[in-house]
Structure prediction request, 238 residues.
Amino acid sequence: MEQKQALIVIPAYNEQNNILKVIKDVRENLPSYDILVVNDCSKDNTSAIAKQAGDGVKVVDLSYNLGIGGAVQTGFKYAEKNGYSYMVQIDGDGQHLPSEVNKLFAYMTQTGSDMVIGSRFLDIKSFQTTWTRRLGIKVFYYLFRLLIQTKITDGTSGFRMYNRKSIELLSQFYPDDYPEPDAIILISKHGLRIGEIGVEMREREHGVSSITPIQSPYYMTKVIMSILFSFTRTRTRW
Prediction:
């Protein structure tokens, strides 16, 4: 299999107003990276607009809305099948800055981490999310310290870089629902190393988050239960 270097995966659902700008930012800042847009059965023109970006951008249209977990795992499967050494997850809403990917790569290279998380809260002043989500992130911080003895300041961040080991693992096993915190447990249980570095993020220009303040308590309860279940579950063969 031909070994390729790095792939940017952009999961997108109803991001017609953001997707072209995200692709442009990636191209300008990461010209050597390939781009995969995973259109999660959007109801708007996300797919058509992404395809307008032209050569160098692959668009996968899912037949059903799988949610963020299924969309990102599609990216892992694509990266694994096509022999990429690295994969970077960048949200389609424009909050993640492609220019910050170099920080993730440098940290991964220096520390030997298998997954590096871009954090809004680690030694940097960046766009801050709502207070309810910050509270939830703090709860996850203490939960990770308790369960896996690892300090993760931004466990819900979807801005992440993965090496070949973590790509191979997560192409087979990746949480379906609210996967970012759960994937930390999965990575740790399989003996892979997790790193985190502070990055700048910006507020989305269009659209709204899928998790509203009213939904936050339900989200918190569901994710905590999922984390505990993943921690107690027998390690999968890999």
User: Anything to note?
Assistant: Residues 131-148 form the longest helix (18 residues). The first strand starts at residue 4 and ends at 12.
